[in-house]
Specification:
The chain has about 575 residues and is an alpha+beta fold. It is about 40% helix and about 10% strand. It is globular.
């Protein structure tokens, strides 16, 4: 199929030519999404489903997300771009289909023209972009938004997309970079920000002088104390007679971490060095004070292999710096899968004598993972374990089904630690906030590990109300693999999230003897009486209202500016 788009170019084609092919293919992908949406709207009963919590748009976005293995939110954003191109920007869409404009530019245009609602203005804006897009030179994000806004302002001044830096925009966000650390940033009321700053300073000074952390590190760790409702920061000095508080937190803000037990028990020299490296002053970027730095030093000096102008380079043999990783034994250690959490947290206890555990260990101790989040280096998991409540999660093996609908705590913890996230294709919602779903509906389907999986509420509703012989179907294997079949017959297999770091949790459990066909015959009975939660307004009505509100704010802002200029 790809060759159909690429026949004009061979391996000697330039990067720019292949970028055109990519843009044209993306345009066709987005156009196909609109076709799926139109089919959903044309189906019987679609009007009533518009007020479902998981409406026609949401169901189509779920299918698009599964097809591309992306989240439903990401798929919904693509669908929004696709409908904008079809309904508001047909001339831009034509250029996109010819590969003459990139997805990056198209995405920016569809977003920043969303407030243009007058049909004549939409037509004028679309034609204006079509006349200039192919002549635009490559632009930075800032220049691109400026150019787009200039065209919008010419035809609809109140339709310019503006960032509202008001109290309504306050929020706190988190970014996880995969190193086991997180970056927190946000916008608060000034008084709240000052109160938080003072509170962190107070908590940072509740430890004894022997605590190895810097003030900055203690301020960062004090955020966790606040989440636990503590009025102190637990001290981590090694002294038995420490006067500082060491009581572990017992709050309700729980972070679940899964980790191998041998990671927690590691007392090797390498582990000790890794643990110690978490605290103390950060390593300096340079070997001299910044006030003494020269441009030559900042560029790397002789470290880059070049000689300093006007002088000879002196080469001096230096002993290699001690790297703890070089002193770690590669010997295998027993691997009981344990779960630790940043409070009540599950852990796994499994056999290690299988082929999944015979791989060569890396020099560093094996990492853990936050359920539904990033992995954590071994040193960080050991630090968290100092104040965590630890539960061992054991593989159920061939245990018989439990005689009730709700799984026991032990079985539920195993399922959540095995799955780690929602098991719908592309979904990354944490297992800790997901429903535990019976793949074959209870009471026909048993309450056992081979018939239980984690589904976020959205995808649980999708399976329940958009499922059936002509809708979504799922089948579960004893190792936890889920095979999904879409309404159009496409199949997708999702494996348990633990397979990479904790493969022993994927060992097969007792199989389910009831067939999917038997379960489908009883589906109507088991789903009887269930109703989909409903919206107060349709998605389209909500979108129209948001646009009207933003345009009103733009008009008020313009009116204030005119009054200010007049009085000035």
């Amino acid at each position: 199929m790809f060759d159909r788009f690429a026949t004009a170019f061979d391996a000697s084609g330039t990067v720019g030519e292949w970028a055109r092919v990519e843009a044209a293919a993306t345009a066709r992908r987005l156009a196909a999404m609109v076709v799926l949406l139109d089919q959903a709207y044309a189906a019987d009963g679609s009007a009533d489903r518009e007020q479902w919590y998981l409406d026609n748009w949401g169901a189509v976005a779920a299918e698009i997300g599964a097809e591309q293995n992306i989240t439903q939110s990401a798929a919904s954003h693509q669908l929004l771009i696709a409908t904008a191109l079809r309904d508001r920007l047909p001339h831009v869409a034509a250029l996109f289909a010819d590969g003459l404009v990139s997805y990056r530019v198209v995405s920016a245009i569809t977003t920043r023209t969303a407030l243009v609602r007058d049909r004549d203005a939409q037509i004028a804006v679309d034609k204006a972009f079509a006349e200039v897009l192919t002549d635009w030179a490559p632009m930075s994000e800032e220049k691109l938004t400026t150019a787009i806004d200039a065209i919008v302002a010419e035809h609809d001044p109140q339709g310019v997309y503006r960032t509202k830096l008001t109290a309504k925009g306050r929020n706190v966000q988190f970014d996880y970079d995969g190193s086991g650390m997180a970056t927190m940033f946000g916008t608060l009321f000034a008084t709240h920000g000052k109160a938080l700053e003072k509170r962190l300073n107070v908590l940072a000074h509740t430890v004894c002088p022997g605590d190895p952390r810097t003030v900055e590190q203690r301020r960062a760790d004090a955020v966790h104390s606040i989440t636990q409702g503590l009025d102190y920061l637990p001290c981590i000095c090694a002294g038995n007679d420490c006067p500082g508080p060491k009581t572990p937190p017992t709050g309700n803000a729980v972070v679940y971490v899964v980790v191998n037990e041998d990671t927690l028990d590691d007392t090797s020299d390498a582990a000790v060095a890794q643990d110690a490296a978490l605290d103390g002053d950060p390593d300096p970027l340079f070997d001299k004070p910044l006030s003494e730095m020269t441009t030559w030093d900042e560029l790397g000096g002789n470290d880059n292999g070049a000689d300093k102008p006007g002088g000879d380079t002196k080469h001096q043999d230096e002993p290699a710096k001690n790297d703890p990783a070089e002193h770690v034994s590669n010997d295998q250690t027993s691997a009981k899968d344990a779960d630790t959490s940043d409070h009540p947290a599950p852990a796994a206890d499994t056999n290690t004598n299988g082929p999944a555990n015979t791989h060569r260990q890396s020099p560093a101790t094996r990492p853990g993972t936050i359920i539904g989040g990033p992995f954590l280096p071994g040193a960080l998991t050991r630090r968290f374990a100092l104040t965590a409540k630890i539960h061992k999660v054991r593989h159920p093996g061939d245990s018989p089904p439990e005689p009730r609908y709700t799984p026991s705590r032990r079985l539920a913890e195993f399922v959540r630690c095995r799955d780690l996230t929602c098991r719908f294709p592309g979904c990354s919602e944490p297992a800790t906030t997901a429903d535990i779903d019976h793949t074959i509906a209870w009471p026909i389907g048993p309450t056992c590990a081979s018939n239980l999986k984690c589904l976020c509420r959205r995808h649980h509703l999708l399976k329940t109300f958009w499922g059936g012989p002509t809708g979504w179907r799922d089948r579960q294997l004893p190792d936890g693999t889920i095979i999904w079949t879409s309404p159009r017959g496409q199949t997708y297999a999702t494996e348990p999230g633990c397979k990479l770091l904790f493969p022993s949790l994927c060992a097969p459990t007792a199989p389910v003897t009831i067939t999917t066909e038997q379960a489908e015959r009883a589906r109507a009975q088991t789903n009887r009486g269930l109703t989909m939660p409903r919206r107060q307004r349709t998605r389209a009505q909500d979108r129209t209202q948001r646009i009207a509100d933003d345009r009103r704010l733009n008009e008020e802002e313009d009116r204030r500016r005119i009054q200010f200029d007049h009085h000035g």
